[in-house]
């Protein structure tokens, strides 16, 4: 049994935001314009609108110019792609994100491929995914980037460790596995999915366990090695009798798992706050042309 160290994503995210804010202030002092991040949203999905609102608010907090392009659900794919052309060609837009999911009649993969890779601050474009695979400079997808940053800023040793990633989605699990195996992180990585055999045994072998499967409390104490680092990516709203009517939890059964960990992220307040901060970091990189000359 351990007394785990809490990985406080809120505090680390706030520190990074302060760093970005002071860099933006210096840019403004030297007479330059601020970085400009645009969020594009289609339809009225409550969760998507609230994510976009939070991105807008946090962009403004660090001194960025922030714009939201909102379109009705009825927009055709052709019209939508034309809007992206406009953003691709606007020299005063440094980066933009297309809030997912999109309505069914708009092909998400086509949309992602239509974003100028130089402005793809979500890091979803095939060019950026390919560059990441080849260890070339690229925009890293925000959530995995945020997790790598948490691990680095906490000074957690990764070299030679067994890392198990639960979930192989394009935006979380797969890039996470790539990043943990890259030079610098140097983990030996196992990427698990719904067809993985003997999942409990595989997880039990993890020095670092990253859960991104989208199932509340899936990771239980019998899946966790004594002293492991556990990173919980999951976000779930579970209805209850509280005033709010729900509580937020993750893919890990925190209360049972935490006593067996050396480090653990809480939900909320672990990985979540890092995702938007990584987007801000990518936007600053886009503004400075750090990834593409
Ligand atoms: P996703 O696209 O639904 O992918 C889930 C993955 O988990 C799939 O690869 C699936 O395998 C695997 N899986 C499902 N059931 C499994 C099982 N019983 N055993 C082993 N693997 C299983 O999810 P996602 O978009 O990566 O998101 C995962 C979670 O992270 C969600 O709760 C989401 O809300 C959260 N999230 C949080 C943030 C943040 O900022 N904190 C950002 C993004 C996502 P198959 O491929 O075989 O189907």
Walk me through the topology.
Layout: E1 5-6, H1 9-29, E2 36-42, H2 46-61, E3 65-71, H3 77-89, E4 95-98, H4 108-114, H5 126-133, H6 142-153, E5 162-166, H7 173-181, E6 188-192, H8 199-204, E7 208-211, E8 228-232, E9 236-239, E10 246-249, H9 254-257, E11 261-264, H10 272-287
Parallel strand pairs: 1-11, 2-3, 2-4, 5-6, 5-7, 7-8, 8-11
Antiparallel strand pairs: 9-10
Helix pairs in contact: 1-10, 6-7, 6-10
The structure holds NADP nicotinamide-adenine-dinucleotide phosphate.
Written description of the protein model:
This protein is of the alpha/beta class. The chain has 2 domains: 31-116, Leucine Dehydrogenase, chain A, domain 1 (Rossmann fold), CATH 3.40.50.10860; 141-272, NAD(P)-binding Rossmann-like Domain (Rossmann fold, 3-Layer(aba) Sandwich), CATH 3.40.50. 38% of the residues lie in helices and 17% in strands. The chain contains 10 helices and 11 strands. A 6-stranded parallel sheet has the order 1-11-8-7-5-6. A 3-stranded parallel sheet has the order 3-2-4. Helix 7 (173-181) links the parallel strand 5 and strand 6 (188-192). Helix 1 runs parallel beside helix 10, helix 6 (142-153) crosses helix 7 (173-181) and helix 6 (142-153) packs across helix 10 (272-287). The radius of gyration is 19 Å and the shape is globular. The chain starts with a strand and ends in a 6-residue tail after the last helix. The model has no long low-confidence stretch (mean pLDDT 97). It binds NADP nicotinamide-adenine-dinucleotide phosphate. NADP nicotinamide-adenine-dinucleotide phosphate binds next to helix 10.
């Amino acid at each position: 049994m351990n007394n785990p160290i809490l990985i406080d994503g809120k505090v680390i995210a706030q520190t990074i935001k302060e760093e970005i804010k002071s860099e933006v202030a210096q840019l403004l002092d030297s007479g330059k314009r601020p970085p400009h991040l645009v969020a594009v949203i289609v339809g009225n999905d409550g969760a998507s609108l609230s994510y976009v609102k939070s991105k807008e608010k946090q962009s403004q907090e660090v001194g960025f110019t922030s714009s939201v392009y909102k379109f009705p659900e009825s927009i055709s794919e052709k019209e939508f792609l034309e809007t992206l052309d406009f953003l691709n060609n606007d020299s005063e837009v440094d980066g933009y994100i297309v809030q997912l999911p999109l309505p069914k009649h708009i092909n998400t993969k086509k949309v992602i491929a239509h974003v100028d890779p130089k402005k793809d601050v979500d890091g979803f474009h095939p060019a950026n995914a390919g560059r990441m695979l080849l260890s070339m400079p690229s925009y890293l997808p925000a959530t995995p980037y945020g997790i790598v940053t948490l691990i680095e800023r906490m000074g957690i040793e990764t070299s030679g460790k067994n890392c198990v990633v639960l979930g192989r989605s394009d935006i979380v699990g797969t890039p996470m596995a790539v990043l943990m195996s890259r030079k610098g992180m140097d983990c030996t990585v196992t990427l698990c999915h719904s067809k993985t055999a003997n999942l409990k045994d595989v997880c039990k072998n993890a020095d670092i366990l990253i859960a991104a499967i989208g199932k509340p409390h899936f990771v239980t104490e019998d899946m966790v090695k004594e002293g492991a680092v556990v990173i919980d990516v999951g976000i779930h709203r579970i209805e209850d009798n509280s005033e709010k009517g729900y509580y937020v939890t993750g893919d890990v059964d925190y209360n049972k798992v935490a006593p067996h960990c050396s480090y653990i992220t809480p939900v909320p307040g672990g990985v979540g706050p890092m995702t938007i901060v990584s987007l801000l970091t990518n936007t600053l990189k886009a503004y400075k042309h750090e990834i593409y000359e």
